């Protein structure tokens, strides 16, 4: 083989290996996420939906009741929790529209993603992490909210 063609052959081999590694990485990520059984999925969604309803009703006690023990320990009481929500997560209080994605188990965590549109028309993606409580009910153990570009993979 002429020397001028060897770099191209090496580049093609490198590209093929890189693409294979990339495909394997995507497959591993997809395998790490799994749908929940239907009953669990409904229960997880119900808890997040109930907390959003409590926020909309300005019912701090009820909203706080859906939080995990670690959140209770962090904030101490419902008024402090609600003040934090209003100050940092206002888009969760009385959103214009809400779309629930299918909850998943990701690396041992139960995740419920929710797409929201706030009163100003901005899109948000709220990713809730839940844990099963001692009473076997689901509790919210954290939420990350990020702007959403409307091109969600869901």
Written description of the protein model:
- The longest helix has 27 residues, at 6-32.
- This protein starts with 5 loop residues before the first helix and ends in a 7-residue tail after the last strand.
- The model is unreliable at 6-31 (pLDDT under 50).
- The radius of gyration is 21 Å and the shape is globular.
- By secondary structure, it is α+β, with helices and mostly antiparallel strands.
- It has helices at 6-32, 38-56, 60-65, 69-75, 78-88; strands at residues 33-35, 97-100, 104-106, 109-117, 123-132, 138-147.
Can you give me a brief rundown of this structure?
This protein is α+β, with helices and mostly antiparallel strands and 154 residues long. The chain has helices spanning 6-32, 38-56, 60-65, 69-75, 78-88, and strands at 33-35, 97-100, 104-106, 109-117, 123-132, 138-147. Strands 1, 2, 3, 4, 5 and 6 form a six-stranded antiparallel sheet that branches.
Which value, in Å, is the CA radius of gyration?
A: 21 Å
- Overall outline: globular
User: Which range does the strand content fall in?
Assistant: 25-35%
Structural class given helices, strands, pairing? alpha+beta
Helix content: 40-55%
Multimeric state of these chains?
single chain
* Elements, N to C (H/E): HEHHHHEEEEE
Give a topology summary.
Blueprint: H1 6-32, E1 33-35, H2 38-56, H3 60-65, H4 69-75, H5 78-88, E2 97-100, E3 104-106, E4 109-117, E5 123-132, E6 138-147
Antiparallel strand pairs: 1-3, 2-4, 3-4, 4-5, 5-6
Features of the shown structure:
154 residues, 6-stranded antiparallel sheet, 6 strands, alpha+beta, 45% helix
